[in-house]
Structures are given as C-alpha cells and as structure tokens.
C-alpha cells in the first residue's frame, strides 16, 4: 500500500516536472526551472509562470479530481462502470459554458466561461438532489443523474442547432473536447477552492464506502448514515467535477479507467482506492497533456480526445481480462 | 438484562399489513430462533426492529443513533452482498468499524482473530471473498458480524446454503455466544435445527406472533399444521428434541 502510494507520488511529481519542461517554446530544462524560480518580466520566466505552470497545476487538479470522484462514485454505486459524469454535473457545467460562448459572455471577459460553467454545475447538482429526494438509495440518484445529463445534453445540442454564429459553434465544439492549453493562473485560483473543498469532502467518505461493500442494509447497521453519505458524495463530486469542467472542458474516461486499473493494487478496498485513484488520475492527465504537446505539436490536439483514444482501448482490455476470469 | 424490546411493533407496506402489534423482548444469554413460513414477515420484523423500515409501535434499537446502535447490535442481512473482491480478513475487519478510531487497535485485531477462528477461516484469511463458494462467503459474513462483538447478534437465515457440518457448527457457535452472556436472534427455515439448537422459538405467521417459548411447548402438532401446513415427527431423545417434517397438509 505505502509502496504503491510512494510510486504514484513519484510518478505524479516526475510528470509534473516533465510537464514544466515540454512546450513549443524551446527552453533548456535548466533555464526553464531557473526562470520559474526567478520570476519577473524575463520572457523565459513569463512562459514558465504564465503558461506552463498553470497548465501543470491544472492537470494535477483536474486529473486528481476525476480520479477521486470516479473512485468514490464506483464505491458508492458498487459498480465498476460508474463514472463522475453520472450525476449530470459535467453535462450541466458544459451547458453553462456553451451558453457563455454562444451569448458572447466568454469573449466579453476572461472568467465568463468558467463562471458560467460553475453556475451550470450548481444548477445541475441542485436539480439532481431535488429529483433524487431526501431518502432512497442509489437507484433514484442514478435516474436523476441520467435525466439531468440527457436534458443538459439536449439543450447543448439545441444551442448548436439554432446558433447563427459559425464561429461560436466552432468554438463550442472544440471547447467540449477538453483542453488545458492557454490557461492562466487565474483559472487555477478559480478552480482551486472548489477542488480542495471537494477533495476534502470526498476523502472523508472512505469508511462509509468500505461498509457499503456489504450492501446498504449492512452498512446502515454498521453506523453509516446513508443519507448523509449520499449527500456528501454528490456535493463533493459536484465541486470537483464542476471546477474541472469549468477550466478544462469535458475530459472523459479518466474517472472510469483509473479506479478500475488501480483497484487490484489496493486489495479492492474503496477507502484505499480513493487516494490512489486521485494520484493515478493526476498522473494520467499530466501524461496525456504532455502527449498532446509531443505527438502533433503543430496541431492543437485536444486533451479529451486523447484520453478517450487511450482510455477506450484500455477499457476494452479490462473487459477482456474480466471475461477471462469468469467461469 | 434486555437487549431488544419491541412493543406493539406494526409494519404495513403499500397499504397491506405485514404484521401488527408484535411485542417481544430478548434478554442477554438467550438464543432465540425466529421461524415462520415464507412471507410471514421475519425479515421485515428484524429490519423494523433495527429501524431500517418505517414502522408503528416501539423498538428499543430503532431510536438509537447509528453509531450507538452499531455497538449494540450486529445485523447479518439475508442477501449476501459482497461488492468488491476484498480478502476475507479485510471483510471481517469491517465489523470493527463501529468501535475503531483512526486505525485498528490491538483489541480490534484480537476481535478479528476471534471471529476468524470461530468460523474456521483463519487459515484462508488472505483469499479473495468473491472467488469463494456461497457457503464460504456466508461464513465470512457471519465472521464479520461476530467481529462487531455486540451484545445482540441478529441474523437473517445465516445457515441457508451451508453444508450440514457448517450448519451445526454455526448453530453451536451461536449457542456458545448465548452461554457467554450475549444474545442471538436468528431467523431459520430448518425447523429441525431450530428445535434442536434454540432454547426459545418465536413463531411469526398470519400477521402476528403465534407462539413464543421453548421448542417442545411451541411446536405442537396443531401449530405446525396451522402455521406451516405440514405434519411432523417429533420425539424427545437423549440427543435432544428431534423434529422431522413429514407431509404437506
């Protein structure tokens, strides 16, 4: 366990440093790190502090969020196919961003888009909680999440359908693919409080999720307050996924594949999977964000496209492995 | 000392009464078998007593705070749900959750060891639960409930699907728990095992408690015919009360 965590920490740290060293501006590694420490108006320092550092930090925040939320969601629903987007927060955050782009709010001021995305996430999570009801277990939550996802997706399609502005449509389509390119430290400061709050909420769910291994009835009689657990799961996921979608767009497969990959390495215990999956998610997004800069540097390959391209075959491989284990 | 007090407990689901006015008390040191035909409401009675189902009347457990209740009663549901491929030991350790601070203490580890020993699982502790047979999974789940070390253990058909040796061993283990001053309330379908191992039987049927007492008093031919719709051969032998169902009426 500790060996795994140490390995994952080392991996995240290594990829973080690598992420700082890779980019279209060809700067020698030593110069770039010096520039990062020195600061000031020197161009190298500007590139490091204004472009590469925010990008690397956001990759850790977004990846950690998706991995953690995915592990928590799979633990709560006791289903390895669950992912953080299931409760409709990413779809409603995306809708907020789409409205910001279409209405011109995104162009009017820099934080227009992420703030609208956060507002969309907030409306989405409130609707999901209202629909799912105060009591009732996992099933009503899934149904409410699917309903909100479908609704938000339909309205997004409607905006695209009726838009008279081809530039806005173009921008929406590319934004929805998810990317960390050209983000600033302002984006970091916007996402950071929600992300940290959500991490704190989700990280505390471990014991309740462990008890849920035995089903809702057994967990309830082991001292778990199921209603509170569900509320915390939804609020925590909404914080981290809302913030991640607001700054990076929709990035799929991280929250689905990372917990699945790491589960065998932590003895399948949900509480131990949470921190491992957060680190694993951060590593995956860092790696993918480095890859989009290396594979076709002249074209702007989108992060979400790459995670899906890598994630889908990986997932197929996992299905194949699961099938082989079955009698 | 009483570990469970039910007064006029009633449950109706979708407008239909499952049972009405069940009054029952279980004392420390008792091994109580809850018997009744399918649909009599055995599971619902136990879940209502735990406060997991909306109910009328009073249950001493239902009003407790979740953590306090988890230290007063361990519950083993009938559905043997195990969601993740954890090891037997990790599963049994879950039973210590209501007692545990941040990490397992020496007392927690000792309780886990006792539970593993009781169910004969100590040698296979590192095996993955989801790859075990149904009977072995049932034993692991019983061990989890034992590790909770509560004054009252409630189990819903814990021995269904076990082989005869493990059925008898489990019933004897429950008897030992009762002899040690704890209490066990267990629902059963096997009337033979119930008659042989339970000092007290509670018969649930037709919307309420039909009989409550020692097996020889409870299992009269009239009651067995009326509640279960069967005839049975019964004898008091040096080996104890023998009950063998014979024919459907």
General description of the model:
- The complex is a heterodimer of chains A (327) and B (249).
- Chain A contains 15 helices and no strands.
- By secondary structure, chain A is mostly helical.
- Chain A has a single domain, classed as Orthogonal Bundle (ABC transporter involved in vitamin B12 uptake, BtuC), CATH 1.10.3470.
- The radius of gyration of chain A is 20 Å and the shape is globular.
- The relative contact order of chain A is 0.17.
- Chain B has a single domain, classed as Rossmann fold.
- Chain B has nine helices and eleven strands.
- Chain B has a six-stranded mixed beta sheet with strand order 5-6-7-3-8-9, sandwiched between helices. In chain B, strands 2-1-4 form a three-stranded antiparallel beta sheet, with helices on one face. Chain B has a two-stranded antiparallel ribbon with strand order 10-11.
- In chain B, strand 8 and strand 9 form a beta hairpin.
- In chain B, helix 4 packs antiparallel against helix 5.
- The radius of gyration of chain B is 18 Å and the shape is globular.
- At the A-B interface, helix 10 and helix 11 of A face helix 2 and strand 5 of B.
How do the helices and strands line up, and which of them pair or pack?
The complex is a heterodimer of chains A (327) and B (249).
Chain A: H1 2-21, H2 29-38, H3 43-77, H4 89-103, H5 105-108, H6 112-132, H7 138-162, H8 166-176, H9 185-203, H10 206-212, H11 216-220, H12 226-248, H13 254-262, H14 270-295, H15 303-325
Helix pairs in contact in A: 1-3, 1-14, 2-3, 3-9, 3-12, 3-13, 3-14, 4-6, 4-7, 4-8, 4-12, 6-7, 6-12, 9-12, 10-14, 13-14, 13-15
Chain B: E1 2-13, E2 16-27, E3 31-35, H1 42-50, E4 56-59, H2 66-72, E5 73-76, H3 88-93, H4 106-118, H5 134-147, E6 152-156, H6 164-179, E7 183-187, H7 191-197, E8 200-205, E9 208-213, H8 215-218, H9 221-228, E10 230-237, E11 240-248
């Amino acid at each position: 366990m500790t060996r795994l965590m140490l390995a994952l920490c080392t991996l995240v740290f290594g990829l973080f440093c690598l992420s700082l060293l890779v980019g279209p501006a060809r700067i020698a590694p030593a110069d770039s790190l010096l520039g990062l420490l020195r600061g000031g108006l020197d161009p190298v320092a500007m590139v490091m502090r204004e472009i590469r550092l925010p990008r690397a930090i956001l990759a850790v925040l977004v990846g950690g969020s998706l991995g953690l939320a995915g592990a928590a969601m799979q633990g709560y629903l006791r289903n390895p196919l669950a992912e953080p987007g299931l409760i409709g927060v990413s779809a409603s955050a995306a809708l907020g961003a789409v409205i910001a782009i279409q209405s011109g709010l995104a162009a009017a001021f820099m934080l227009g888009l992420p703030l609208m995305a956060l507002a969309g996430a907030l409306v989405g999570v409130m609707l999901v909680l209202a629909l799912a009801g105060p009591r009732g277990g996992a099933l009503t939550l899934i149904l409410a999440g699917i309903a909100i996802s479908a609704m938000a997706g339909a309205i997004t399609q409607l905006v695209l359908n009726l838009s008279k502005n081809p530039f806005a449509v173009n921008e929406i389509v590319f934004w929805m693919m998810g990317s960390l390119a050209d983000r600033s430290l302002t984006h970091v400061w916007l996402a950071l409080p929600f992300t940290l709050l959500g991490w704190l909420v989700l990280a505390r769910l471990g014991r309740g999720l462990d008890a849920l291994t035995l089903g809702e009835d057994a967990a309830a009689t082991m001292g778990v307050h199921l209603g509170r657990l569900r509320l915390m799961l939804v609020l925590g996921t909404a914080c981290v996924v809302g913030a991640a979608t607001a700054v990076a767009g929709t990035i799929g497969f991280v929250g689905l594949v990372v917990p699945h990959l790491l589960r065998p390495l932590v003895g399948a215990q949900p509480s131990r999977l949470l921190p491992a999956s957060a680190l694993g998610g951060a590593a995956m997004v860092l790696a993918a964000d480095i890859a989009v800069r290396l594979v076709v540097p002249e074209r702007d390959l989108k992060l979400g496209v790459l995670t899906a391209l890598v994630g889908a075959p990986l997932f197929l491989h996992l299905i194949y492995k699961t099938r082989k284990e079955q009698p | 000392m009483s570990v469970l007090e039910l007064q006029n407990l009633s449950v109706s689901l979708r407008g239909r009464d499952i049972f009405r006015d069940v009054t029952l008390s279980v004392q420390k040191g008792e091994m109580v078998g809850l018997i009744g035909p399918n649909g009599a409401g055995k599971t619902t009675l136990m879940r209502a007593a735990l406060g997991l189902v909306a109910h009328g009347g009073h249950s001493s457990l239902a009003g407790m705070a979740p953590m306090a209740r988890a230290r007063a009663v361990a519950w083993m549901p009938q559905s043997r749900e195990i969601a993740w491929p954890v090891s037997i030991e990790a599963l049994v350790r879950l039973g210590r959750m209501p007692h545990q601070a941040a990490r397992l203490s020496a007392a927690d580890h000792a309780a886990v060891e006792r539970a593993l020993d009781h169910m004969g699982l100590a040698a296979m502790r590192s095996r993955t639960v989801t790859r075990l047979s149904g009977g072995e999974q049932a034993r692991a789940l019983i061990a989890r409930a034992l590790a909770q070390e509560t004054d009252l253990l409630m189990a819903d058909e814990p021995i269904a699907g076990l082989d005869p040796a493990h059925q008898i061993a489990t019933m004897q283990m429950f008897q030992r728990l009762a002899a040690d001053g704890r209490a066990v309330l267990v629902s059963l379908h096997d009337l033979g095992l119930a008659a042989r191992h339970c000092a007290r039987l509670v018969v649930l049927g037709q919307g309420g408690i039909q009989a409550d007492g020692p097996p020889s008093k409870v299992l009269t031919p009239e009651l067995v015919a009326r509640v279960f719709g069967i005839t049975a051969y019964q004898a008091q032998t040096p080996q104890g009360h023998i009950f063998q169902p014979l024919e459907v009426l």
